[in-house]
Amino acid sequence: MPTNLKDTTTLSNGVKMPWMGLGVFKVTEGEEVIQSVKAAIKNGYISIDTAAIYGNEEGVGQAIKESGVPREDLFITTKLWNSEQGYESTLAAFETSMNKLGLDYLDLYLIHWPGKDKYKETWKAFEKLYKDGRVRAIGVSNFLVHHLEDLLSSAEIKPMVNQVEFHPHLTQKELLAFCKNEGIQLEAWSPLKQGQLLSEPVLQDLAHKYNKSVAQVILRWDLQHGVVTIPKSIKEHRIIENANIFDFELSAEDMDKIDGLNQDSRAGSHPDTMSVGF
User: Which of 49, 143, 156, 272 has the least C-beta neighbours within 10 A?
Assistant: First the structure.
């Protein structure tokens, strides 16, 4: 089990990815995202996760520069938006993201949503970026088992990561097992279900038992399931608190209790319906 914020899991290609990072979904471009990312880095985070559609890649890039931490000590992820899927459009979108971030290589590039029929073509562009050394690891986001099976049928390089909505109301057991079996690292976005889980009585009881916050209990549950997690916050005290999850362990019984909260309910879109229109 990881013991601090810099601890990593080793992806299928040998690249080391931190178990925990900062997500910047819905963090406003400019001062808000710059301060959020700088606070995270200052407090020991080395992994930052953004996306083209978040509209804050420039701020993330500026924060990285201003942090004073060497580029090679950080792990930066961004994602390709739906409208840019396809071979040439993916390569162009990648350059746009890199220019905004001000980076000459990326640690992880993800296809943001599967969509309907372009992700295989998109993946060919991802494989090229990977072979050219522009990206250290490539992966997907919001792919269900059937999307992964379809992609794997023609992929030359297996996705190293699948970032999905994952939390106690959406435990994704089948998907987690499939990814483990295929050597694809599962990563949780919206691990706190956009705050909706903070009032869940079972989690409140466990928080009391372990003398932790509900958020800390959930993030610890992620880690003990072998899932990378990227909680979002713009408040420094919360960024610090979220990371304070390495000094306790949930019992097997309590892990089961949390698993039992599953409702297959999502805060975000369903990958099969999000695919309409692109």
Answer: 156
Q: How many CB atoms lie within 10 A of CB 31?
A: 10
Q: Is the dihedral of CA 224, 268, 195, 254 positive or negative?
A: negative
Query: Domain residue spans in the chain?
Result: 8-196+222-248
Residue 211 φ then ψ, to 5°: 55, 45
Could you say which of 45, 54, 109, 119 is catalytic? 54
Question: 3-class SS at 206?
Answer: helix
Residue 54 appears among annotated catalytic residues? yes
Question: Do the beta carbons of residue 40 and residue 10 sit within 8 Å?
Answer: no
Q: 29: closest CA among 63, 52, 57?
A: 57
Can you tell me the distance from the alpha carbon of 197 to that of 203, in angstroms, rounded to the nearest whole number? 8
DSSP code at position 20: B
What pTM value is reported for the model?
A: 0.97
Other residues' Cβ atoms within 10 Å of the Cβ of residue 268:
16
**From CA 19, how far away is CA 16, in angstroms rounded?**
9
Alpha helices (H) along 68-213: 87-101, 119-131, 145-152, 173-182, 201-210
Neighbours of 137 (CB within 10 A): 24
Burial of 211 (0-12, 13-18, 19+ CB in 10 A): exposed
Tens-digit pLDDT profile for residues 132-161 = 999 999 999 999 999 999 999 999 999 999
* CATH 3.20.20.100 is the classification of domain 8-196+222-248: yes
Owner of token pair 């810099």: 6
Look over the chain and give the mean of its residue pLDDT values, rounded to a whole number: 96
